[in-house]
Amino acid sequence: MQATDNLADSRYARMRWNTPLSEEHAALLLRRLDVRPGARVLDLGCGWGELLLRAVAAGGVSGALATRGVGVDTDDAALARGRRAAAGRSLDRHVAFVMGEAAAWQEPADRVLCVGSAHAFGGTGAALDALATVVRPGGRLLFGDTYWERPPTPDTEQIFGPEVTDLPGLVEVARERGWRVLHLSTADQREWDDFESTWLAGRQEWLLRYPEDPRAADVRAELDDRLRQYVGGYRGVLGLAYLVLGR
Ligand SMILES: C[S@@+](CC[C@H](N)C(=O)[O-])C[C@H]1O[C@@H](n2cnc3c(N)ncnc32)[C@H](O)[C@@H]1O
Fold first, then answer.
1. Distances from the Cα of 100 to the Cαs of 70, 133, 136, in angstroms?
2. Among 117, 196, 198, residue to substitute to test ligand 1 (most atoms within 8 Å of Cβ)
3. Which of 29, 43, 73 to probe ligand 1 with, by most ligand atoms within 8 A of CB?
4. 152 and 92, same structural domain?
5. pLDDT tens-digit profile of 106-151?
6. Are residues 97 and 115 in the same domain?
7. Which of 102, 111, 89, 87 is CA-nearest to residue 33?
8. Of all protein residues, whose CA lies closest to atom 19 belonging to ligand 1?
9. 121: domain range?
10. Which residues form ligand 1's pocket by a CB distance below 6 Å?
């Protein structure tokens, strides 16, 4: 059986968002982000913008005080998925998905999201400095970033880079850059396992469906490597912290 061109589409197909996060945890973060009616919401490195859409909906989109949002990313397919989702929820007049470099965006907003995208700015410290210029005074930033839950092996450290620190270190980087921590929570093991599983699941299903496809051997090897790296390397070692920050 030959696959059509749906291998690319299958990559993120099983993911609600591209970060280890349960529905319940997302709802908590959005409450702590406290989006007010009429707010401007900006998501830098938004992917398909599921959290952005929920943040805008939480602020309310009716009447003169309609909340508006902008998501910025460099992934065309993700942006297209975001636009389809916005249209499906009648949010397309309120949320724009823009192709662009996160670090080049300059228009400030009341609520800013940057989840799993600090690398788009060159790392944690550079991201927290740049984001300070796009959060309006009195505004809030939802910042999701990695940290070491336990000391990594040298191989694991090499995958994620030398800038990742432990959780106290991450909090200190934010504090040194003038941010106050209004909320802190971390992804738990089940959120991580679900994230890693759903990241693989779209292509696992594709493989089961198209085992004879010429691309199947490469895809199988890639998925096997990633699962090995996770269970044998960074599972329980790499953490993801969600900070709601103000300044
Ligand atoms: C781990 S994903 C997180 C996506 C989204 N924040 C979420 O939680 O679902 C990181 C995102 O950063 C985007 N990205 C990477 N480099 C970028 C850049 N230079 N400018 C804008 N977005 C970038 C990727 O395309 C990807 O969508």
1. 11, 17, 21
2. 117
3. 73
4. yes
5. 999 999 999 999 999 999 999 999 999 999 999 999 999 999 999 9
6. yes
7. 111
8. 120
9. 22-189+236-246
10. 17-19, 45-47, 51, 72-75, 78, 101-102, 115-117, 120
**Residue 209 and residue 223: Cα distance in Å, rounded?**
15
Ligand 1 atom nearest to 75, measured from its CA? 25
Asked whether residue 89 carries a pLDDT value surpassing 60, the answer given is: yes
> What is the pLDDT, as a whole number, of residue 6?
87
Please state, for a pLDDT cut of 90, what percent of the chain lies above it: 96
Is 37 part of any domain? yes
Helices and strands (H and E) in the chain: how many: 9, 7
> What is the position in ligand 1's atom list of the atom closest to the CA of 17?
9
From the CA of 74, how far away is ligand 1's center (Å)? 7
Task: With respect to residue 73, please indicate whether it lies within any of the assigned structural domains.
Answer: yes
pLDDT band at 25 (very low <50, low <70, confident <90, very high): very high
